Structure formats: C-alpha cells, structure tokens
Amino acid sequence: MNEIIIIGNLGNDIELNETSNKTSVANLRVATSFGKGDKQKTEWHNVVLFGKTAELAGEHLKKGARVLIRGRLQTRKWQDTEGNDRYTTETVASRLEFKGKGGGSANRVLLVGNLGADPETAYTQSGLAVVNFRIASNERYKDGDGNSQTRTEWHKCVGFGKLAEFCGEYLEKGSEVYIEGHLQTRKWQDKEGDDHYITEVVVSELKALGGGKGSSDQTPVPEPPSGDDVPF
Predict the structure, then answer these.
(1) What is the Cα–Cα distance from 27 to 50, expressed in whole angstroms?
(2) Cβ contacts of residue 50 below 8 Å, gap of 6+?
(3) Domain extent at residue 128
(4) What is the C-alpha to C-alpha distance for residues 86 and 53, in angstroms, rounded to an integer?
(5) What sign does the CA torsion over 221, 223, 229, 232 have?
(6) pLDDT tens-digit profile of 103-147?
(7) Whole-model pTM?
(8) Which end of the chain is more exposed for a tag (fewer CB within 10 A), N or C?
(9) Domain at 119, CATH number
C-alpha cells in the first residue's frame, strides 16, 4: 500500500504540458496546514496529474482553489544546472475533486512495506525517543505492452515517544509494517553550508505485520539507494 490523501489549496495556476508520447501533464503545488495560532504550520506538496485529469484541472481550477487529491508517493531523480543529482518527492494523483471554498485541510499517508534497514533510535536532550527508518512499498501494474511489473518506492519515516521505543525494540530490517502519518518537508545543511530538503512521513500509528525481531518470517527487500544527497 502506498496512498496519500491531501485536502488543501492550490498555490499556482495550472499550466498544461505534454510528455513525449503526447499525454497531458500538469504540476501543482498544494498547501495544507495543521496546528493553531503560533504553532500552525503549512506544508507544501508537489502534485503531478496526467491525461484527462490534468486537462480538466487546467480548464477549471485556478490558484487558491481548494481540492481533494488521492494518489501515491514517488521520489523522482533530476539534475541541477551543475549536473548534481537531486530528488523530489511528489504525489502522483489518481483522483482530484474540487472542494469549494472554506473548510479544513488534510495530509494523510497510508503505507504498507518492509524496513530496508534496522531502525535507528536516539533521544533528545529532554529524553524523548526518536526513531528513523526507511520502508519499501511495492505496487504491481501493467506496462504499455500488458506485462506485469513491480514498482518499488522508498519512504523515509520518523516517529517519536513510545512508538519510537517500540520500533527500536521489536523491528528490524525486513519487518513488514502498516503506517499512518502525515508528510512533512524539513531543511538541513551539508558540510559546505548548502541548504537541502528532506521529505518524510511523520508516523502517528504503526502496526507490525510480520518479520519482527526473533522471527524467521521476513520478506526480502531490495537495497535502498545510497549517496550523500539521497533524501532519506
């Protein structure tokens, strides 16, 4: 399972483009918010639409429109002007609805996948447990020739408190988990002081589905990508 649900407002007017095979494509920026007062935070989501969905959105939606989007998360590699590899996490939309004016927003991620490495647990100065791990979700689809294919996406996840302690105690590489949470993007700096951005799932609920410590029931997972600028 790899699903994200977003309810938010468009941050840009929609411009239609075409892929090499003449399929319409549109790239959106959608803002969601949570929290109240001084603690309110806005998250921006990169969303890509294809085909008729992109065409209808381009025809009817403008900056500020409130929309509901369902889709899947994917991380795409691209190169900057200096030839360096960069990564963008985006939502590939399968459904889009116009929600009218007013109302709240939503940013919900649902994942089922296997850990690509043992979870890393640490503690803040105040004693709060923090866990970081990556999971691989698999999706089966048919290519243009009708052949069955498997698409693997890697997701960086972070959890806190009792959930983090549970992960450190019971989970390991290969463990299968169900996760609910929300997407966030945070900034960090490398050794040269250059800014980078990481998109991750902040886990609010986790269920172990199999392959925990001491279990022989584990699903083999591919090795995760590596490199200093990989967004996990």
Answers:
(1) 9
(2) 19, 23, 24, 25, 92
(3) 109-210
(4) 27
(5) positive
(6) 788 999 999 999 999 999 999 999 999 999 999 999 888 877 888
(7) 0.83
(8) N
(9) 2.40.50.140
